[in-house]
Amino acid sequence: MGEEDATRLGALYDAHAAPIRRYATRLTGDAAAAEDVVQETLLRAWRTPRILADDPETVRSWMFTVARHLVIDEARSAHHRREQPVAEAPEVEMRDATDAVFDQMLVEEALATLSEPHRAVVVRAYFGGMSTARIAQELTIPEGTVKSRMHYALRALRLALQERGVTR
Fold this sequence. Notes:
Elements: H1 3-28, H2 31-46, H3 49-52, H4 56-76, H5 78-82, H6 98-112, H7 116-127, H8 132-139, H9 143-163
Helix pairs in contact: 1-2, 1-4, 2-4, 6-9, 7-9, 8-9
């Protein structure tokens, strides 16, 4: 939008927004809805340059008609008919933590079936977020041993979870 267009749009807003807002507020009884009507009315006027070339009183009359039609269209819309105002907002759905607790118990039981060296590697990698090199350094074992223990630990963990009906 050029500077001239911005100036024209500003002048259009200054000349007509307040009266249209008052009119729309009277029709809707809602300041937010009235503001939407004002914006849409001014946008339609802006998109219809032949209207803006008319006499200012004719322009305002046209805008009041557009605003009235917008309010009527909104009142007739399915969206408006289906909305029911309520005194209080509905309760927010709370997620049940039961499944998470059971999952945690199953994982703990499955981890308990692993040998201590295998469990140490899995816990550090998955729950501690450590890299293979960091685990090797902390446990003072070679990285290859960490990888091997991780491989066998995950196989055993998968089997333990299958026995509990968790995985295929």
